[in-house]
Amino acid sequence: MQAVLIGFMGCGKTTVGRALATELRTEHADLDELIVAEAGRPITTIFADSGEATFRRLERETLRQTLARTGVLSTGGGTAVSAANAELLAASRVPVIWLTASDQTTLARVQNDAQRPLVNQLDVEGLLALKHQRAPRYEQAADLVVATDQRTPVQIVSQIAQWL
Ligand code: S3P
Hints:
It catalyses: shikimate + ATP = 3-phosphoshikimate + ADP + H(+). Its EC number is 2.7.1.71. This is Shikimate kinase. With 164 residues, the protein is an alpha/beta fold. The protein has one domain: P-loop containing nucleotide triphosphate hydrolases (Rossmann fold, 3-Layer(aba) Sandwich), CATH 3.40.50.300. A five-stranded parallel beta sheet has the order 2-3-1-4-5, sandwiched between helices. Helix 1 crosses helix 9 and helix 2 crosses helix 4. The two termini are 12 Å apart.
């Protein structure tokens, strides 16, 4: 991979990842989409039928395989959180970019999204607590931090492309 995007749900990893890959004239991979394709069922069903631990195992294996490919990788909101995944990211030496968003922006982007099991499970306080709890992990894994509030994908991509 040439770049990996990490960050909490709703920070724009997929949107920015696609646009960054286009800018860099390379492939885009979305970890959640790869997991869904491999499992043959949506993330909500994996969580509901097999539990979060099964999802995390699939996520780690898919991350390990995908880091070896070329292109831009958009991860899931929990990917960079576990120590094992943080080690995979560090060992890959791929630039890791943390996309941030304010609490308000995050809620506006993810509330009422039925495709995200953690959004379904948690209330607003729980979701924001998870966001704040994860922030130090994202920070530790990141080589670059990019704010996304009130900025367009084009502006965000141009900042990342210049830094790369
Ligand atoms: C998760 C975020 C989701 C997806 C899964 C778990 C998380 O990805 O991987 O629902 O733990 O934050 P997005 O950040 O793309 O919503």
